[in-house]
Design brief:
By secondary structure, the chain is an all-alpha fold. The chain has one domain (10-160). The protein has 7 helices and no strands. α2 (33-51) runs antiparallel to α3 (53-78) and α5 packs across α7 (135-160). The termini are far apart.
Amino acid sequence: MTEKNRKIHPRELKNPVVFVAMGLGSGLSPFAPGTAGTLLTVPLVYFLQQQGPFIYLLVTLFVLATGSLICGYAAEKLQVHDHSGIVYDEVAGFLITMCLVPVGWYWMLAGFVFFRFFDAVKPWPISWFDKNIPGGFGIMLDDVIAGIISLCCLLSIEYFIA
C-alpha cells in the first residue's frame, strides 16, 4: 500500500464505486477532505430529516450496510488503506450523529462540530479501532463510533438543556 494522502489520478474516479467512496469527489478537497465529505452530507441529512424517521433510518442502514464493501473496494483499487479521500465513512458517521436529534440548524451545527471533533482527534476508543481493525470494516468502524459518541453528546444536551 502507498501513502494515505497520495494524489488521485482522474482516471481512478471513472470507477463508480471509487467515485462514491470519494464522496462524489468531495474527498479530493486539498484541505480537510473529511470535513468536505461531512459537508456533502449536510444537505442529505436535512432532506432525510424532512422525510421522517423511517426513511432516515432506512437510508442510514443502507449506507452502513454498503460502507465496508465500498470503502474496502476503493482502498484496494487505490492501493491505500483508508486514503484520506475516502469519505463514505464520514457520510455514515454523520448520518448516525444526526439520526435521533431534533431538526434545526443549531442541532446540525452542533452535530457537525461534535462529529468532526471526534473523527479528527480520535480519542480512545476510536483511535484503537482506527489502528487495529483492517479493511473496509476498519475504515468504517472508527467513523461509526465517532458518530455514536457524537449522537450521545447531542442527546445528552437535548435531555439536560433543551
